[in-house]
Amino acid sequence: MRCLSGWGLKSNVALSSGRCSDRTAGRLSAGWKRYAYTFFISITFVLLSVASKTDAAIDPRHNWKTTSTEHFYIHYVAGQEGFALKAARAAERAHRLLHNKLQWQPEDKTHVVLSDEVDLANGWATPLYFNRTVIYAFPPDRAEGLEDFDSWLETLLLHEYVHILHLDKTKGLPGFLQRVFGRQFLLFPNLYQPLWFIEGLATWYETDMQSGIGRGQSTLYQMMMQAEIESGLKPLTQINLPIKSWPVGAANYLYGVYFFLFLEEVYGVSRIDELLDRYSDNVIPFRINTTARSATGKDVYELWDEFSDWLQQRFKRQKNGLTDNQWQDAERLTHSGYRTGYPTMTPGGDVYYIDSRPDRHSALYKVDEHGSQKITDVYPRARVNAGLAEQTDVPGNNGESRLLITQIEFCDEYNLYNEIFKLDISEGRLQQLSYCGRYQTAIASADGRRILALKVDQGISSLQILNADGELMQILYQSRLSEVISQIKWSADEQTVLAAVFRESRGWNIEEFSIASRQWHSITSDRHIDMYPSYSDAGNSILFSSDRNGRYQIYRYTRGSDQLELLSRVKYGAFYPLQLKRNSALYYMGYHADGYDLYRISQVKVLDEISDQLADNTPVQAAITDLDAADVSAAATEVAIAQPEDYSAWKSVYPRWWVPILSITEDSTEVGLISSGQDALALHRYSLILQYDTDNNWPTGNISYAYANRLALGYQRSYDYYRNSDNELALSRKDDEVYMLLNWQLAKLESNTWLKLGVLSSRSDDVFVASNLQPTGPRYDRLVGAAALYNNSKYYLRSISEADGRRLRLTAESSDLLESDYTGEIYTLDWREYISLGSQHVLAVRLLQGWGTDDPEPFRLGGEDNNYNILDFITPQSQAVFGRREYALRGYAKGLPELSGRRMQLAGMEWRFPGQLLETGIMSPPLGLVQWSGSVFVETAAAYDGSSADNYYSGAGLELQADINLFYGMTSRMRLGYARGLDEDIGDERMYFMLGASF
Prior knowledge:
Blueprint: H1 29-52, E1 64-68, E2 72-77, H2 81-98, E3 110-115, E4 123-126, E5 132-136, H3 152-168, H4 172-181, H5 195-206, H6 219-231, H7 236-239, H8 251-266, H9 269-279, H10 288-296, H11 300-317, E6 331-332, E7 338-339, E8 341-345, E9 351-355, E10 363-368, E11 371-374, H12 375-378, E12 402-410, E13 416-424, E14 429-432, E15 439-444, E16 450-457, E17 460-467, E18 472-478, E19 483-490, E20 496-503, E21 507-514, E22 519-522, E23 530-536, E24 541-546, E25 553-558, E26 564-566, E27 574-579, E28 586-592, E29 595-601, E30 645-646, E31 659-664, E32 669-678, E33 684-693, E34 698-707, E35 711-723, E36 729-747, E37 752-769, E38 779-791, E39 805-814, E40 825-838, E41 841-852, E42 859-861, E43 886-887, E44 900-901, E45 903-922, E46 927-944, E47 953-966, E48 970-981, E49 989-995
Helix pairs in contact: 2-3, 3-5, 5-8, 8-9, 8-11, 9-10
């Protein structure tokens, strides 16, 4: 909108406003109200986003089907009928096992979405907007926490259904209010618990000690918790937060499940039931201390201290026949920790592995007799971007070494799969061989002409032979849904395939597949978890990692022998064993308190087997030896399953909740409601704010809709009120705003490109004009824009800032294509470069150029606003792309006429330095401080109307940033800054406190 001085006002009337240099009138009564609405709506959708995780990708291009059982809707892609049937049975089994234990029966059926868009073993659940869980159709294939199961789908659905029943459980006053306001996010008391409590409960329920199922009894979790105890247990104030220190990602499950095991042993299951029951009656969020005290007599802080003592005693009293001097010494070759891993050995004995430090990019390293060499430092173009599954040397035409790497990559904007890449060491070139291939492992033949590959698609594992270009030649074997094949190796004569194989009712064992006979042969056949096999000594020996003595240790099987030989006795665990010959060094990935690192045992000898059972339970031993034993799923209890039908969004997309709103100002009294909704696949999303101004008798509000990150539409009606110097209402104007945004995404794991087309239209009309003012008639601001956004910057786990890359935004906007009071075009280039200086230090550089023709809406510089939008938590599409004219220039006030014009330039530089990782907070209210950092900045800018700027205005300052955690799960950056404008005339010294990063 233009400044009121240009609207034909009579000279004897002065309207209240600040400076009008930005040609925008001052709005008095409307301002605070709009900010209050924005804040409330933003918090609403942020919490909905955090709780419901609606950012998961569901591919809308598939032919989605829906079937149903007594308690579930099952949504799946056509062609996955077998998987859907098994999921339906597993879901009903979970309901039978759990609804009485948690004493809760949902009113409506739970939606189960079977997603096959990600090569990741996982799932999640939410009670918002209805009970819904998404299950990834990818089986666990490594000892990373999910390996203890009898049926991975049943265990996963059991875990997620615990979340459904737990989070949906609402009693007392919250239950009554739900019957009035629907499934409003504030009326689910159990959502407002720490994540370790929520995940710990589900992990506790998934655990079956007698059957050896679940993380609560797993050898891996016992190993991890023992390392935690010996390095110092984390306090409650740290575990309440989404921590970045190790064991990042697993801490909630690890500490949570042991906390519930403690409650079960010390206080009994009835106290857990009482705790859950009482919390489900809370109408005031975050009353976890009060609820715990009423159920156990102690608050959570007191329980945590008691829990810590219980853990110490539990691990002391468990069977542990080893003294300190009986542990085996091994040389630690790396010191990165976290998830360093995925090693492989070439036929020449060189070891390659992925270094995955939390503050820098993953890197490929080589270890030989001369030490360690970082391959991707020598060849920067050959950056690995994710975990390395398998590698091997492939002789090239000139004898150079090549590696095959499988790593995660986008197939398209919806699907994230493992693909095969070839790394040419001599040229430093990384070439992608497969596209949408879903290959978990790739091993080249000795002559480099063929590739043995393991593919996992829709939960089915298959062994395939590809040519050197990654094209399918032959399928050797295809598994059933009840089988999982993983971690394959190819024998030197290329006649057999070694693998870790899971079979229901039999567990994980080492097996060998004969390519000639197409038959599997068991190397091990028991209920211990045997994984990470590898050939040694020209194939005469097989090494693998097993938990058979209570910890993961390395064993050797020698052909022709009926005995296993123990080769390691390390304190925590040994994985991925590699040994060229019997008399050569043994490499493995070992665990410690800070994660995984590469170790070497130079002198390998056979050790005596000593019982070292960490757990009190003994896994049930299976007697099944027949590889063709009946599939357990076929013998499962039959459930009534409806005939499949085409998926319909209309059956789930209707609103499920509403909140009344009331806003009173001296000019208006607005009453109304807020609501939102989405369908079961989260393809269609919308929000509604409907209001009526009872003082002026006119409607206000807005509505927005988005489809699958492809299309966004919105409409808003609002009113602005202007008062004169006597505080009398002088003018009221109605604003109608409409927008449409189209998006196309070109996604890569290392970069992301968005192409956007937008149309923005606003119309402003007088609805009240004082008698001493002249009516102005309608005014139009209509804009058509196109934009390209590119981002390949990195934000690592321990980053304090984006690093290693750049963000580009190029926009072209026109006010001439549609009728508008503005004319001309606006072109904007925003270039942000991030240069890692090491040890979390970053040099950030920004260049911004705006160029307008004719008479467009002007650029305005000044202030500290970074255009941060709290809705950015939900989707990057909420960021302002079109119609953006205001940019911060720290050290200068907003609205200065010297900093307004149709063209502008801005350049800035920041040195960002780390402070300290604190990870501490309070339980209630839920507030935490994750880390702090700082920055020193300088910037200069100019805004002008001519062909070049007459003056540039510079500023400098210092900022301190703190990553603040709210509600146990939502973290945002807060800035406290000092800036000084260096211009003597308009520069200023300014202190400010803001939400979000600078740029």
